[in-house]
């Protein structure tokens, strides 16, 4: 196995929620802050999964400000968590001292709304705006029109910026 293969295995353990595997790779010398070819570190991959315990472990042993570290696609672990819709992980990241509150809006909110993670939208922008988002999502589900869905997605993006 090459070092790149080892890094991929570590990142797969992060995504799969395999805490013992993450610990094994990390304690064996793999850095949680090493970037893969996409510019992602272990936290990016952990936020793709649903294991709060893996995210906590990775955060504990990662460098500060990793929550906002953007990959080559301009996506941070926080954005990934919002897109994935695991509210406890979104909350864990947002409550850190090194979290930039500006990340709660705009693209992170849009990513959560696009995937209909309305509990995450509510957490990010508040219950009133989340109710509006929910009404838009319900209308999309009933209309079924691609053009309408595109229009509503633009509306979702704009409303996330207002809060």
Automatic annotation (TrEMBL):
Region (Disordered): 137-163
InterPro entries: Ankyrin_rpt, Ankyrin_rpt-contain_sf
Top-level taxon: Eukaryota
Keyword list, A-Z: ANK repeat, Repeat
Comp. bias intervals (Low complexity): 145-163
Coiled coil: none
Name of the molecule in the record: Uncharacterized protein
Organism lineage string: Eukaryota, Viridiplantae, Chlorophyta, Pyramimonadophyceae, Pyramimonadales
């Amino acid at each position: 196995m090459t070092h790149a293969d080892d890094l991929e295995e570590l990142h797969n353990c992060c995504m799969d929620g395999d805490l013992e595997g993450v610990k094994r790779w990390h304690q064996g010398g793999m850095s949680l802050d090493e970037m893969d070819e996409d510019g992602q570190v272990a936290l990016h991959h952990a936020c793709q999964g649903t294991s709060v315990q893996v995210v906590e472990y990775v955060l504990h042993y990662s460098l500060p400000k990793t929550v906002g570290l953007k990959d080559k696609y301009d996506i941070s672990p926080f954005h990934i968590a919002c897109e994935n819709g695991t509210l406890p992980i979104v909350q864990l990241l947002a409550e850190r001292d090194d979290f930039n509150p500006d990340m709660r809006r705009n693209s992170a909110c849009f990513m959560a709304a696009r995937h209909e993670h309305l509990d995450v939208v509510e957490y990010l922008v508040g219950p009133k705006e989340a109710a509006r988002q929910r009404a838009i999502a319900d209308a999309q589900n009933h209309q079924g029109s691609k053009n309408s869905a595109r229009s509503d997605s633009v509306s979702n993006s704009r409303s996330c910026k207002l809060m």
